[in-house]
Amino acid sequence: MLILICIILTLASQSLADLSVNNYADSAYPGRCVLDVGHSVILLNMAQSYKFDNLPCTQVFCIGDGWGMLNTCDREKPPDDCRYTEILDWDAPYPECCKRRVVCD
Predict the structure, then answer these.
(1) What are the boundaries of the signal sequence (predicted)?
(2) Domain assignment present for 95
(3) What is the extent of the structural domain holding 55?
(4) Is 50 inside a domain boundary?
(5) Are residues 102 and 84 in contact, defined by beta-carbon separation less than 8 angstroms?
(6) Where would a tag sit more exposed on the chain, N or C end, judged by fewer CB atoms within 10 A?
(7) H or E stretch including 12?
(8) Residue 103's pLDDT is what?
């Protein structure tokens, strides 16, 4: 289990993402990550993920025992004299959905 978590954290840190590890445990569902998304409750087993529909390119990946990684796109600045515009493909799987169009002056 520990080796799997280390591999996942290493891969995630090399992507286009910011991440945080959070506790999504609920005593009613032992060992699972429990996400209350307003209209329903999402139950994740270890190694399952959920991509939020109402947040751009944000997902939770359950790493076990109620702990999960919240992944969002990084806050990297664009190149000098350039700016980011729209997300290229909102519906793409994570982290490909982080890619944005760059416009340079």
Answers:
(1) 1-17
(2) no
(3) 2-75
(4) yes
(5) yes
(6) C
(7) helix 2-13
(8) 94
The answer to whether position 65 is within a domain reads yes
pTM of the predicted model over 0.85: no
Closest CA to 105 of 74, 79, 68: 79
Number of domains in the chain: 1
**Residue located via tokens 């209209």:** 39
Please write down the HEC assignment for all residues of 55-97: CCCCEEEEEECCEEEEEEECCCCCCCCEEEEEECCCCCCCCHH
Compute the distance between CA of residue 26 and CA of residue 65 in angstroms, rounded to an integer: 10
- Using alpha carbons, select from 25, 8, 98, 11 the residue that is nearest to residue 61: 8
pLDDT digits (tens, 9 = 90+) for 80-102: 999 999 889 988 988 899 999 99
Residue 1 parent element (H or E): none
30: preceding bond cis by omega (within 30 degrees) = no
Tokens 């520990």 belong to residue: 2
